[in-house]
Structures are given as C-alpha cells and as structure tokens.
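@channel sequence for tomorrow's demo:
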Amino acid sequence: MKFDKQSYFRFIQLEKSLAGNSVEAYERDIERYVQFLENTGIKKFDQVEEEHVSKFIKTLRELELSSKSIARNISAIKGLHKFLAGERRSSYNPTQNIELPKKGKHLPDVLNVEEIDRILDAADPSAETATKLVLRDRAILETLYATGMRVSELTGLTQANIMEDQQLVRVYGKGSKERLIPIGEFALKWIDAYKKKLRPVLAQHKRSNDALFLNFRGGPISRISVWQIVVTYSKRAGITKEIHPHTFRHSFATHLLEGGADLRSVQEMLGHADISTTQIYTHIDREHLKQQHKEFHPRA
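structure tokens (generated this afternoon):
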C-alpha cells in the first residue's frame, strides 16, 4: 500500500500543530496501521471498510495500550483517511463514523512568567548572533503572549488589524468571527519597530496583500514557520518543556487569571464560544493557589 507519507505528515503537522516528537509518534501509528491492513489482505486504501478500522482499534486494546495512545492512533488514522479523500486518492472515508474516545480533562502545559521572559529575551536584535529576521520573530512572540490569539489568527493579521491608538487588535477567529483583543505597549513597540525597519524590506516583492507578518520571500508567514520560531527561541532560552504556539495562549490565559482577571473577560479575549472551554484554566489557577499555600502557609 503506497501513499505519499511525507505529504501526509506535513498535512497532519499543520492540521494539528504537532511538535517533532508527536509527528514521530503519528508516523509509528500509521506504519502499524498499514502493516495491519496488509496482513488482513488489503492492497489499496479504497478496500478499507469501517469494520477493518474497528478491528484494528480492538487489536490496540488487546495490546493493552493506554487510552491516550489509542486515542492518538485513532486520530492519526482518521487524519490519514481524511487526507486521502481530500487528495482524491481514495473515494471513501471509512473513519467518518468512528469517534475518538472521550478523554478526561487535562491541564495544558503552561510557562511561568520567568520562562516567557527568557524566550522573549532570546529573540534579541542587538545580539551578535542575531539574524535579520529576529525583529520579526520578537514581534511575533510578543504578540502571541500579549493577546493569546491562535496561530492561525496571527498568520491572518493585516497591518490594518493593529489599532495602535486604541491598543487593540482585530482578530478573525473560528468561523470568521471577529473580536477585538487588547494588546499592550510592549507588543506594540516591537510591532512598530518591525513595521518600520524590516517589513518594508520583506515586502519588496509585493506579495504580501497587507499581511502583517511576512516570510523572507515577502508572502504571509505560515503556521509551521511560527511553530518553528517558537521552538527555536524556546531552545535558545534553555526551556526543556515541549513548547508550541498554543503554549503561549495557555500561558496568557493562566497568567491573567492568576493576576485576578475574571473568567468572562478571559473567555472574550480567547474567543471561546462556551465558557466551559475557558474553565480549564481555573483548574490551573487552583493548582497555582495550592502551590502558593503549600509554599507559604506555616501549617501546610
């Protein structure tokens, strides 16, 4: 059974904003799935039926894999068949009725303020080793942390979306829903410096269509490039956690709640349709409070 693995893994990386280790896990999952299908006598993806996928999932349970691993396997398989159908390499998606197992709520990884500062400071235009794109990278990192926006929202920003006088940024989120997010002076300062000193150089090819953040060819920056920027400066800052752009969003929400912001305001800024989605961050906040109690209460 042959298919363009690299194209699929690029697709899954962008679709799910996966980090390197996660991509490798997905690769292993897909290889095991393809081996199972071949052992079943299936030679083409068009021959795969829903019952084959169900048997494979049953096999994973018999192997006593963790529920998290099984969920990842199912996600990888669903992504594969979605990709094949979308690319017209398969006429049927046998996974469309197969649902992911419900997961218990888990606390997303967050960075503390000191770790955020280290990452931001790692993008230092005055450093001897700084590249010419570091000014753009610093503006991107500052914007992610200042606003908590999704990476897809950041790549869609135009210059006109930055309302400097009001210290607001206009964002178009899921379903093209518009919202205004406050943006602080720090991020605005770096955006202004980037717009004056670097963006005109990048925009010489006139392919930007007013996009705020550009790649070195003058086109709008991609999601994968933003992910690479976040990873690069996190490593330079000596952060050993697995960091991705969404980590900045999680940290933004957590730090606001730790500072006393109310849940409804955070919901509005994040663009969550349902406040229950935002409430996950109250659990993080409670963990912070418990840690503070343990550290400072004499009888903890």
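heads up for whoever presents: The beta strands are 162-163, 168-172, 178-182.
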